[in-house]
């Protein structure tokens, strides 16, 4: 088929419009680029199989990076990658929590004096409880002395003592056992309190000195 010069000129706008439409719809052909395991830079007009295990870049005709293609992982590799990311996130969360605790600790104890004061107050309360228990133990000891005086008459055969007197012995023994155990528990509590304050002291020293790592607010 032959076209006159005038006919060709009339068709040119239609051809140009078709080319523009095609470019707009496809965005231009992409160029894929990567560096393989040997260190070679490879380019192609489609994703590169030799770089399936590493990141690839899709470039526009102008050379700018249009997008990045993530490596293709096996199920095992993907699971390992997700586990590593999970561990990183857990570590970051633990670090943020530790920093939050340090901020709270520093707010509660802005100085060594404040820390010493609260330790002393905690120990005073425990000592007061121990003092009361020891006083009760002393009373029970005196009570037992009187009971023993009554039992003196039945020293040769305790089974002949009145039931009420034998109950006094039993009750007194149980009460003394309870008080002794309670005092021992309070002594252990004092050790726990001192250990806690010692641990806090060790954490607070660099915070008071201003040498602790920078604390993020995220």
What does this structure look like?
The protein is an alpha+beta fold. It has a domain at 111-209. Helices cover 66% and strands 8% of the residues. It has 4 helices and 4 strands, in the order αββββααα. It has a 4-stranded antiparallel beta sheet with strand order 2-1-3-4, with no helix packed on it. A hairpin with a 5-residue loop joins strand 1 (31-35) and strand 2. Helix 3 runs antiparallel to helix 4. The relative contact order is 0.07. Residues 1-27 and 213-218 have low confidence and may be disordered.
What percent of residues are in strands?
A: 5-15%
Shape: elongated
**Main β-sheet description:** 4 strands, antiparallel
Distance between the termini: 73 Å
The SSE string, one letter per element, is: HEEEEHHH
Number of helices: 4
Tally of DSSP β-strands: 4
Radius of gyration: 43 Å
For the largest sheet, list the strands in their spatial order: 2-1-3-4
Would you tell me the overall average pLDDT? 84
List the helices and strands and how they pair.
Blueprint: H1 5-26, E1 31-35, E2 41-44, E3 56-59, E4 65-69, H2 75-108, H3 112-151, H4 163-209
Antiparallel strand pairs: 1-2, 1-3, 3-4
Quickly describe the structure.
The protein has 218 residues and is an alpha+beta fold.
Label this structure with key terms.
four-stranded antiparallel β-sheet; disordered N terminus; 4 helices; single chain; alpha+beta; 218 residues; disordered C terminus
């Amino acid at each position: 088929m032959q076209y006159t010069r005038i006919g060709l000129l009339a068709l040119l706008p239609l051809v140009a419009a078709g080319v523009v439409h095609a470019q707009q719809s496809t965005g231009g052909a992409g160029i894929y680029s990567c560096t393989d395991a040997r260190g070679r830079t490879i380019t192609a007009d489609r994703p590169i199989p030799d770089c399936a295990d590493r990141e690839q870049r899709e470039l526009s005709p102008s050379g700018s990076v249009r997008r990045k293609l993530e490596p293709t992982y096996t199920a095992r590799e993907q699971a390992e990658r997700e586990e590593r990311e999970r561990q990183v996130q857990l570590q970051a969360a633990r670090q943020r929590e530790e920093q939050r605790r340090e901020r709270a600790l520093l707010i509660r104890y802005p100085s060594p004096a404040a820390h010493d004061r609260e330790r002393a107050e905690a120990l005073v309360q425990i000592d007061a409880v121990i003092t009361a228990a020891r006083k009760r133990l002393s009373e029970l000891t005196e009570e037992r002395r009187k009971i023993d005086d009554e039992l003196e008459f039945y020293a040769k055969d305790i089974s002949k003592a009145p039931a009420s007197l034998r109950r006094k012995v039993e009750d007194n023994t149980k009460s003394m056992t309870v008080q002794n155990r309670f005092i021992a528990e309070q002594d252990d509590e004092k050790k726990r309190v001192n250990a806690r304050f010692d641990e806090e002291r060790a954490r607070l020293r660099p915070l008071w000195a201003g040498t602790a790592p920078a604390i993020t607010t995220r």
